[in-house]
Amino acid sequence: MITDAHLEQLLRDEQDSFGEPAATLLDRVAGVPVFDNPEHVTPVQRRRGRSLLVGFALLVPLVGAVVVVAGHRSDPAVEPAAAPTVTTGSIPFHDQVIGTWQLAGIDTNAATYGDRPIVRFDNDGSWTGSDGCNGLGGTWRVTEDGSFAASPGAQTLIGCHNVDYGGILADAARIEIHGDRLLLHSRNSGDVSTLVRDPIALPDAPAFGWMPNYSFFQADRVVTDQTLIDRFAALPLGANDRAAAGNATTPPVAWYLGRTAGHDYFLIVYHSHAVCMVSFTIQNGRLTAAGCRTRDAMGDALRPLGDGSAFLVADTVRSIGATDGSAARTDFRIRDNVAIGGPADDITVTLADGATGRLSSSTRVVVPAAP
Amino acid sequence: MTYTESVIRTTGERDLVRQALAGSASARSELFRRYGTNAWRSALLVTGSRALADDATQEGFMAAFAALDRFDDSRAFGPWIGRIVVNRALDLARSDARATNRAVGAVAPDWIDPDPAERSFVRASLAELDADQRAVVALRFWLDVSGPEIATALQIPLGTVHSRLARALDVLRTTMEGQR
Prior knowledge:
heterodimer, A: alpha+beta, 8-stranded antiparallel β-sheet, flat, B: globular
């Protein structure tokens, strides 16, 4: 007599003998994400003639006065467009808008700006940004036929070079998205303003997984503190990450290390408390992957190494030299992607191909507490 | 394994779901890596066809990823995706049977050895079940889905779940004992 327990065990054991699905099934299921699949992208309406850059006229230098630039002008290359067709299974328009944008044609890193003039649309219907020196924000919404509405929030405007994102957004009645371009059609004048994805937030990303090779190293091309904070704010940190950030008595600090093909690396150092490296991919302005390991998660790998500063590094990192306040040079020990060293104000990172980048204390920011 | 792969593979299930919801392809891949095989095996058991199992798994996962915002992340992901895939497998098995004008399960499943001498007695017993019974067996014993959740997934009363499962076990037991 086969008992119920024996029968159940026989059935469970049989499961393993059913084999594995073909490896290609993984590609079918997960390797072609919806938003990576051209078939699912809102059709791009091709334009004749030159590109759609608009916006050089938007920069009006004014000093010492409250400035709101009129915003935008018509681009003769932009024909009035029908509302975009959204195909079944396409990315919702709302999702396509989410991300960080900047007005086309401006150099957001120009010294004339106190802050990078960018605008970021968040999933919760809020938008934030900077006109170059003033923080901006408000709410936004878009329907699947491209109808757009945005309201600017309260702003304190000081004189500087301004990009009037608030005015542009509030005046927009309809939008189109063409790849990395967001066209805003004025409700009053018929003018079209063009935003482009923020290039700093737009590395090329692999379809999925991690590509260990890197296209360039830009540790010296440091993003601003605000950009870094923005990026962290966008990270879907896990419970361990939040606990580490919240429990550390010493504020964690982060260095912007650089970026490989499709990935930005941040070294986050929780002095003597936790260690974490966040590696994430931004694709089409949206965070698509993030990973973080705390010092606790590293367990025995870190324990024998004492209580010095430690952080995880990409496996493209060959060595890290550090200088503390006394200018004494101390090389970090790197083992299993963990770099161990004392607190340092100056770090030089050498990657596998010999490229080096210097991370100075000016690139260090305090990671904001998790919301 | 790359560093990032090692990170994603140690990520908790709830965080994986959250990242997948945010559009992370890596997180979706990892969810499939963790739960795809069991779901696929269950679909194969139900449909008897590797091709249909592939389709059911693909369609089930894609549907699940599209509906992640409705997933209660206080629950386990495995049984949830298993329910979706098995349900899809049942649909495909029925559709295939209609298209070929055959009864569901009338064709020998891919997982049964054509040579009776080579068949495992467990598989030979499973082949005696109809698709509905296989679905209940797969959900309960391979995917650890509870009775009430099976009832919800298959849209049948809980009593029917119990009776179907009991009947399936009776068939299995009888067949196995007859083969011994």
